[in-house]
Design brief:
By secondary structure, this protein is mainly alpha-helical. It has 9 helices and 10 strands. Strand 1 and strand 2 form a beta hairpin. It starts with a helix and ends in a 13-residue tail after the last helix.
């Protein structure tokens, strides 16, 4: 049936012959309408009536290029091929009886050729990959091109487009899955970043706490010695003030005694006054502050090594995690200790 169908295809419209079918002198068959279209295109200046040429002319067979000469009847003078018409009827009946009932197709407006405005687009130029009409194949720009039936190319390219769409849908689903994975990866990165930042802040807060603790310990040592020295100096100052007040009173008594006119009374009081004057003039019983007693520079600290260690703080590798857990206490003790040196308090001078 397929081979028979190929033999019943018009070389102009590339569809099954449409009755009436005319046979040319070269024994090739054409639809009368297609033959008339070729004849009009080959003889554009001949008078027509009702779309048909009414006088003689000539055109070439589209299959073998044999020149066909027509009489005054034009294409209507060509003999009809009744055998081919009967075969077409039988083929259509056989196709109708064997074919399954199909859903009614939508009627759409037929596209027309831009070069030949009265011709429908009914073939496909394989060479240029464009749909065209039969006249373009016979006389137009596609004479030397390979052509194919419009229906077969429609089915072929529709199948290709369907496969392409299915591939695109599958590819889009795959890309959508990748996008979902990337979004999930972004959320995971954000969560991991927040967690690690929180842990980092906790580590630094712990380090700050160690430094604050060591700062309080060392400051308390400085303050303790400062308070001890201040108390000692304040006590010594009080003793010197008391000695000064007693000396002033003795001085005042001495001045008053110097004004005593009576010698007997003067001699009675001067002995005790001389003793007190001697005591007031002597400070040997009072303690003396040693030179440099006020210095506090023995509490100087040097954090050069600790500062270098702090500036070298960086993230550790997985191999160092265990070392950090084991030696964490020792490291904290080293950082807190610093490089401070506290000298013992100097003893007050006797």
């Amino acid at each position: 049936m397929d081979n028979l169908e190929k033999q019943l295809i018009c070389p102009i419209c590339l569809e099954t012959f449409t009755k009436p079918v005319v046979i040319l002198p070269c024994q090739h068959n054409l639809c009368r309408k297609c033959a008339n279209d070729i004849f009009q295109a080959s003889n554009p200046y001949l008078p027509t009536r009702g779309g048909s040429v009414t006088s003689g002319g000539r055109f070439r067979c589209p299959s073998c290029r044999h020149e066909v000469v027509l009489d005054r009847h034009g294409v209507y003078g060509l003999q009809r091929n009744l055998l081919v018409e009967n075969i077409i009827d039988m083929f259509k009946q056989e196709s109708t009886s064997s074919a399954k009932p199909a859903a009614p197709e939508r009627t759409e407006e037929q596209a027309m050729c831009q070069e030949h405005e009265e011709e429908k687009i009914n073939i496909y130029c394989v060479t240029h990959s464009v749909p065209t009409c039969s006249m373009c194949k016979v006389f137009g720009a596609h004479q030397d091109c390979e052509v194919a039936p419009l229906k077969s190319m429609y089915q072929t390219q529709k199948t290709e487009l369907t496969d392409g769409i299915a591939m695109m849908v599958g590819n889009n689903d795959r890309i959508q899955g990748i996008i979902s994975q990337l979004k999930e990866t972004c959320r995971t990165i954000e969560e991991n970043g927040r967690r690690q930042k929180s842990q980092l802040c906790e580590k630094f807060d712990h380090l700050y706490a160690i430094l604050e603790e060591r700062k309080r310990d060392l400051s308390s040592k400085v303050m303790a010695e400062q308070e001890e020295k201040l108390n000692y100096i304040r006590g010594l100052t009080k003793k010197y003030k008391e000695h000064l007040e007693q000396s002033c009173r003795t001085l005042e008594t001495g001045i008053q005694t110097m004004e005593e006119p009576e010698m007997a009374v003067f001699l009675q009081t001067v002995k005790d006054l001389l003793k007190r004057t001697g005591e007031a003039s002597s400070t040997s019983h009072l303690e003396k502050v040693e030179q440099g007693y006020e210095a506090m520079d023995h509490y100087t600290v040097n954090f050069w090594r600790e500062g270098r260690a702090l500036r070298s703080i960086d993230f550790i590798s997985d191999d160092e995690d265990e070392y950090e857990e084991v030696d964490g206490g020792k490291a904290e003790a080293g950082v807190g200790g610093g490089a401070s040196t506290a000298a013992p308090l100097p003893s007050p001078a006797p």
